[in-house]
TrEMBL record:
Keywords: Membrane, Transmembrane, Transmembrane helix. This is Membrane protein. The keyword Transmembrane helix applies. Residues 262-387 form the Mechanosensitive ion channel MscS C-terminal domain. InterPro entries: LSM_dom_sf, MS_channel_C, MscS_beta-dom_sf, MscS_channel_2nd, YbdG. The lineage of its organism: Bacteria, Bacillati, Bacillota, Bacilli, Bacillales. It comes from Paenibacillus vini.
Length: 420
């Protein structure tokens, strides 16, 4: 500044003009130096750093680079130059220093914010992130960062100690609790969800209260994002997963088997004892040959030992078509290549009702994929419906319009035959 003033004094300018022009020249000079420093930082230092980072074998530093941590950090250079140049202008030194320091604090906050984003992205690259997500904790850290940063900025502008402002926030604790109620609840819920391993990213959960039925795609401080199977997105409050019940299908997916629990309803009027002709036909069925032979020998032995009069099928032990059919389904499932043979496999009768006798299949497919599971289930029941008539059984179905038309045609045909 003295040098500039001395040079201007040689042109015979007034003192006021010298001060004015020297200040202007100094401002331009500082601006040029700041722009030059910023240019060197971004074009040389940042490019060199980016080249070194991309050329090494590590991947985590690439994530830091992608989150523009170094780019944001480069904004500190001009601010530092302006801050240390403030003493050149004694009249405005305090104002310039406050403005520059405020800018430095804000940039520092942005740098730490970018670092937290980078840390979250690095953590997500590991499989453990699906089991122990930390996005909620990252969001809490950001809230604390911005609160502290805001307090420091305000303290710098008013020239007070930040601790004085912090002490004043104690009186506003109730208001802060109300403002950050969801965040506090979400933080507590996030800790419980994570520590108890209740839900992970990628889990299939079902929560009818919120019309949620799909895969968890994100867990944040306040919400759990679920992509339903119809591709809609449901946002569930994190604390709702603690306070309300929900179903997590992870256990099924990890077990390697998905349950098939469906019934076929047998018309009870078609149930009866097996005739000799039926037994001979059943012996020809691959899955029933050994069973029928063994059961017939066992029944004959029992009836002979107890001197049962077999002229009436009511006496002694007899095979029934529904019993043989149940055993056939059981053997069919035992030999089905898509059924998990290590898990429960039962074919049972349930309580009969207005819709006939329910014959329930309780088994597990060995593929938990939804499409494969549905195909296996459909294939099994296609076969069951198709073979039921072979055993003299009818599958129950309420009368349809087609049945009524057929009855009407038969009745008309019968009347016509009688009239003829």
């Amino acid at each position: 500044m003295d040098f500039i003033k001395h040079q201007l004094d040689g042109y015979g300018m007034s003192d006021q003009a010298i001060v004015y022009f020297s200040n202007m020249i100094m401002v331009v000079f500082i601006a040029v130096v700041s722009i030059l420093a910023n240019y060197i930082t971004k074009k040389i230092v940042l490019k060199t750093s980016s080249y070194i980072i991309r050329s090494n074998r590590f991947t985590w530093d690439n994530i830091i680079l992608e989150n523009k941590v170094f780019h944001k950090l480069s904004h500190l250079v001009p601010a530092i130059i302006i801050y240390y140049s403030a003493s050149i202008f004694p009249s405005y030194q305090a104002l310039i220093e406050k403005a520059a320091l405020t800018y430095v604090i804000i940039v520092t906050i942005m740098v730490f914010n970018a670092l937290l984003n980078a840390f979250d992205a690095i953590y997500r690259s590991f499989e453990v992130s699906k089991i122990r997500p930390i996005k909620g904790y990252i969001q809490v850290a950001k809230i604390v960062l911005f609160i502290i940063g805001g307090i420091v900025v305000i303290a710098n502008l008013i020239g007070q100690n930040p601790l004085i402002i912090l002490s004043g926030l104690g009186a506003l604790s109730a208001v802060l609790m109300l403002i950050f109620k969801d965040s506090i609840l979400g933080l507590v819920a996030g800790v419980q969800l994570s520590s108890n391993d209740m839900v992970r990213v990628g889990d299939w959960i079902e929560m009818p209260k919120y019309d949620a039925n799909g895969d968890v795609i994100d867990i944040t401080l306040n919400t759990v994002k679920v992509m339903n199977f119809d591709k809609t997105i449901t946002m569930i409050p994190s604390y709702a997963l603690i306070s309300d019940s929900f179903k997590n299908w992870r256990g099924m997916q990890l077990s390697g088997g998905r349950r098939i629990k469906r019934s076929v309803f047998i018309d009870t009027s078609s149930i009866g004892f097996c005739s000799e002709e039926m037994i001979e036909e059943f012996k020809k069925i691959h899955y029933l040959t050994d069973y029928v032979t063994t059961m017939i020998n066992e029944i004959n032995t029992y009836n002979t030992e107890h001197r049962i009069n077999t002229e009436s099928k009511v006496n002694g032990r007899q095979l029934t078509n529904v019993g043989v059919f149940r055993e056939y389904i059981h053997q069919y499932l035992r030999n089905h290549h898509k059924i998990n043979q290590e898990m429960t496999l039962i074919v049972r009768q349930l309580e009969p009702g207005d819709t006939g006798l329910p014959l329930e299949v309780y088994a597990f497919s060995n593929d938990t994929n939804w499409g494969v599971y549905e195909a296996v289930q459909a294939d099994i029941f296609d076969h069951i419906f198709a073979v039921a008539p072979t055993f003299g059984l009818r599958v129950f179905q309420n009368p349809t319009g087609h049945d009524i038309v057929q009855l009407k045609e038969r009745a008309e045909f019968s009347r016509g035959s009688v009239h003829y």
